[in-house]
Fold this sequence. Notes:
- The protein is an all-alpha fold.
- The chain folds into two domains: 7-198 and 250-254, Growth Hormone, Chain: A; 255-478, MFS general substrate transporter like domains (Growth Hormone, Chain: A), CATH 1.20.1250.20.
- Helix content is 78%, strand content 0%.
- It has 20 helices and no strands.
- It has helices at residues 10-27, 35-41, 46-49, 51-74, 76-96, 100-110, 116-127, 133-161, 165-185, 199-222, 227-248, 257-261, 263-291, 304-309, 312-332, 334-353, 359-387, 393-421, 431-452, 460-477.
- The radius of gyration is 21 Å and the shape is globular.
Amino acid sequence: xxxxxxxxxxGRTLAVxxxxxxxxxxAQTTVAPAIPDMARELxxxxxxxxxxxxxxLVAAAVLTPIIGRLGDMFGKRRxxxxxxxxxxxxxxxxxxxxQLGLVIAGRVLQGAGGGxxxxxxxxxRDEFPAEKRPVSIGLISAVAGLGGGLGLVVGGxxxxxxxxxxxxWSGAAMxxxxxxxxxxxxxxxxxxxxxxxxxIGTVLLGIGLALPLxxxxxxxxxxxxxxxxxxxxxxxxxxxxxxxxFERRQTEPLIDVPxxxxxxxxxxxxxxxxxGFGMFxxxxxxxxxxETPKASGYGFGTSATTAGLLMVPGCLMMLIxxxxxxxxxxRWGGRAALFLGSVVATIGLVLLASIPGSQxxxxxxCMVMFGGIGMVFAAIPNLIVDAVPATRTGQATGVNTLLxxxxxxxxxxxxxxxxxxxxxxxGMPTSDAYQMAFAASAIITLVAGLAALTxxxxxxxxxxxxxxxxxxxxxxxx
Length: 478
């Protein structure tokens, strides 16, 4: 008679997964305040040092869906420990490096941490009771935004009171601790998808994503209409089209196209791209607005640390509103939570476009905006998880996380371009530039909310089963 080994308590597992997710989320933005200091110490230009951000973004975008797929194949805990170990190793390399090239190489290794989120979502789906999944998934997703905001504060504190090296040391230590906790306290998921690694698909995905993301990252320097920028974007799209055609013919694809083509999955992914645009655009705009000298007539002349602190209450609102999205989802469906969150975030961005007259008003407006985004980011992974079979969770949520990164890159670059193209005395952006940039983010976020209305109504467990059946039938037709 076999004895069934008791599964670890969900609360303990969730605590470890939150630590793992936070280690990656902080690394999204901690480097930003340190770029000028890194340029001086490494004897490099600011433009060259920004590759520590661009390289990280490209690596995370390429590796996230791949790591999610590997988790489905070989075990989510095993791959999560590996991803955290690679992330920690990259942090150590960047911390000890005295040459910019090695710092960038370390950041590229840290990009493997992008796979943490789909792996966490998959573990929660496999291990947690049904009634605990929506809130747990929402909290993990909210950490992405919370960490992005806190990263600006943490990075500023290290720059102001220590050295930028501690940015990398602290990230490596957090990831290493999360890796040990995952190995000891998180159960291995029982759901597996036996198969082989699709090497050709992996190469095509890497090239197809790297080319346009590189163009987006360098668009301001090269010129958005330059042949190099447009050529990389068109080339990347062509490679991605080739990838889709190739994957449709594979029996064990890296990306299951029929799953991603399901209307709930496709619509949610489009919404994710748009909301990522609005959120990361705000991450760029709010600190710059706060740090602009008072002589401009609209700025507050704060330090980088204070500017980051002004965003903290808003980021913490995401932890409050993400469970609310689960409550709304259970009663009225995920699309209701997604739509409501998008509308609230849009209101916050419209308020910010009015250019707040005090730091208190700025703080309140940030709370409104990030509260809405917290609801959106909590609803999105739950919609994906409910729409796909358990064996495709890592892959589907990996692609969704990738699209959030792409949207964030677009939002940051578009907002920066608007500020640069509308400058006044002293080369500072005008108040009109901030109004236009916030308004652009508000419009994109509102479109995301309207797109959410095209999702099917509340589905529940029956909807999940129906989605699984639809995936199976589509695969059989293929």
